[in-house]
Task: structure prediction
Amino acid sequence: MAAPILQQQPSFLLANLKADCTTKPLLQRCQDLVKVINDYPAKELHVIFPWLVECVFGSLDGVIAGWNLRAISSRSHGYNIVLEFLDPSGPMMKLVYKLQAEEYKYEVSISHLPGPVKASIQEGVLPDCSLFHNKLQFAMSGLLALSILHNPFEFYMFNFAHSLLTVKCCPPGQQGSCTDSAFFVLVDTYLKYFLPTEGVVPPSPFSDSRGSVTAPSPRSLYDCKWRVFEGWCRDNGHIPFQCPVGVILSFLQDLIDRRKAFSTIKVYLAAVAACHVGFGERTASQHPLVCRFMKGARRLLPVSRPLVPPWDLAVVLEGLKGPPFEPLVGADLKHVSLKTVLLLALASAKRVSDIHALSVHPSCAQLFPGDVRMILRPNPAFVPKVVGSCSPIDLVAFAASPVRTYIDRTGGFRRSDQLFVSWANPHKGKPVTKQRLSHWVVEAIALAYTCQGLQPPVGLRAHSTRGLAASWALFRGVSVQDICAAASWSSPLTFVRFYMLDVSAPPQSVSFAGYGVHSPSLLKHHIFHQPSATADPAAQEIWRSETLLQMFVEVWLHHYSLEMYQKLQSPQVKEPFSPTEEHVMVVRLLVKHLHAFSSSLRPEQLAASPSAHSHTSPLEEFKRVVVQRFVQQKLYLFLQHCFGHWPLDASFRAVLETWLSYIQPWRYTANPQPDLSRTVPDRWGSFVEENLLMYTKLFQGFLNRAIRTDLVNAKNALMVFRVAKVFSQMNLPDMIQKGEQLFLEPEHVLHHRQPRGFMTPSQGGSFLSSRQRAVPDSVFRVKSHLYALEGQDCQYKQMFGTDLRGTILRFIQMIAQARQTAKRISDHSMEVAANTSFMSWFGLGSPDLNNTFAGCEADETGESVKKTHEFLDRALENLCQIFKLNPGQLSQIISNLGLSQDDVNYNQLPDCVQGDGGLILTDLGRMQIINGLRRFEIQYQGDPELQPIRSYENATLVRMFYRVSTLLNHRFGGHMNALCSRPDFLGRLGRHYLARPAGTTRLTKSPMMRRTLERSRHPGLSLRPLASYRTLLLILLLYLAGALVSLGPLSSTLLILAGAFLHGLLLTLLGDKLKSH
Result:
């Protein structure tokens, strides 16, 4: 009866939690969840985990909002509850670790992945990211129903990161800053926790004695071994999963009697221990009798292997340099194939199965001009022996040239995208098998010996290339971590125990006598004193840091323009992508944390040689490569997309600051330089070279945007000033210029420079080189960076070249024009402020109550314009410093504009052409309007009485006075016309009171239709000024003044009317003199 209950209990628990989700408050729900996480076993929590993640972060399709973390601010109820529950050390993460220890998997449909990733997978090409390798779950319905299997930590982080891409649902009245939201704070907390600048990542609560979460077991291998044990137990009458320890020992003894290797027996024991019920709290493999038995088995079955190379690498390489392998163009295709596969095996230290999976498909093979470099990737359908070993093979010239020749010579008859195909009939052009590829490797080694008249060694094996290549790499100074990464070894101990050879000793054909304590013991001492993956808890815990970073980068940055995506991987579909300002702010937070994390690398490790990197911890090694390996390319494409598609408004400031944060890593060091010095330390020169496009290409993109914006606007002027200030830092322009010069060096110079150093796989090199320099050549580094980001056919435009200099000079002219316009606006604003004095309340100020400068927005007056003038002044100064313009050149540029005639030009029309419907603006005319250089004399052409009611007018009085004045004008209009038409004094007096403000106007400076250029205005009475609050206040004050001198209302009214008449009479008599004055 117990089994059915155990099967139904998880669903019962899930039903209860779903019911509580709609009835209980957030605090009580979190408290209940904490109890459930602490009390229930992982088997039952596994069922509720997907629902709980969806309940918190919302569904991936955006239908369910979840807790809506992006709308919860510090002023919201439940803010602290959410942060505490989702903290890296909180209950939710405890649940994740609890499930992680049990190896559960959770599906995510590829339809929810970012558009480029989804399109790439549907094309059959896996992205170069471990998050997607060996995790595809195929369905019967085809590629569209594919899903990714994530472990609990990956599943949690994917849903958390994806919640940023869904539409934000903000309740009314809760709009606030995105940096104050619970989501933004959690991103900051996770990055600080998993990318620590001090110490290591704290271990998970469910860990073994080494401080690490239990690694997944190879279930497919264990199933095979367990079935063998089941068959043995069935033949001997035992129950496999409940048998006593004596039965297990008998089975192991039977394996020893059958001469199985000790490593094979260990696998059998691990399979039995994984499925057996165990003995109390111990597994079958931890029983004392089993442990004693395995110690004895190790003594009976010692692992023996040769400690010297089975063949001489120098002899083989010398043989490959002559006939029949050379020259490559004229050599037989068989010998070209043998040489290519052997060099590839030696340069990569890969298994034959990994080399067999390499593809020449355009998405998998990337060739660089001049055969200086080549990147080969395996077929995405390939399942490697070791998870995560599908890393690309990055070759330099000595191995890239034979591979390129082989691809060219087999291109005419190849019938498969597999790299190595058969040259012999009847299978010519078809892919070869792994066994045939192994024969090629052995045959190439043997032929290299025989062509020199030497006897090939006996017992050659293709697998020997791995140990030999890795041992030579260690001998040449490559770090152990880089060797293990390239060869797909999880621990340096694997290399030491099974593959490491003494390459300083003679090959195996020489007498073994005398081989003893010199080089091998020193090399082993060197290896065993490294922090290995099994000895250092950080090596086991760093996978969380890498997973978190890869998830954030793939979800937030893996979106870019179609042109760039087609250049790199040629997708068929493009997902429209428009990041929000909040999205960009989160990306900037990620960039700042990455720089702080990377800059926390100890200086002695930063400047150390590759051999010294073997002494670093895994976390320190991760810091060294994190920016270039994980972020650079995707962030560049993300920013390039934003530069090209973001609206031309002030919200671009978020993108701008993200860019400026990335190109200034020195701001996030532990001890940043004081801002007053504004000098970039020399040690950042390599960063500038490795990120040259981030500086030059994006600067040109910003320049193209700035030319099209209104620089009189203070926010746009501030952005120009920020960019100019950053690029004017001491040493930075020189570093950028040096990087451009390195890229522009001719290809033939590259091969005659100082020898390009020995490069580790992480630096884009191979394991074989006879050169001793440890730092890669700067020219090669810069070229590799540009080719990787822009493709092999990129047309680079120099930032300090002659082509861009013309654009810079034009931009400086625009800044000078905008600065002059800002000054004119400021002067005009001061004049208006002077006229708008206290006396203007009494009608003695300027009659134009809507007096703003033409072409100026409402917020571009006063202090804002003063800031604009200051920003543009300092931007001009910084740009002259960047591009080395002296004051004389700047004065010449400004004088060429004719700014001294600015006032004359301002009264002219913008540049237009005459069209059928009137004047049409040209591009030059639009620029003149944007920068305030010229303007149209736009005036109101309607009835002044029908203008919109102003804030300083009483709406009821305006409407009432309009009806009264309309009635009077309609009844006495003829008499008014006759009075205003008289040329004498009475006519002038009538025109003063009855004429409309604008009179009869001919608009020659406005691009309007011809039929609206003239409009007749008839004289009439206007009572609208009486509806103004200031007029009413003036009348009230006059009545109060009359009351103080004992005047009644009637007397005061007569005096006010008499005063208004005398005022008009005086203005009429002295009108001509006042106008001339």
Notes: DSSP finds 43 helices and ten strands in the chain. Residues 588 and 658 are 5 Å apart (CA to CA). The longest strand covers residues 106-109.
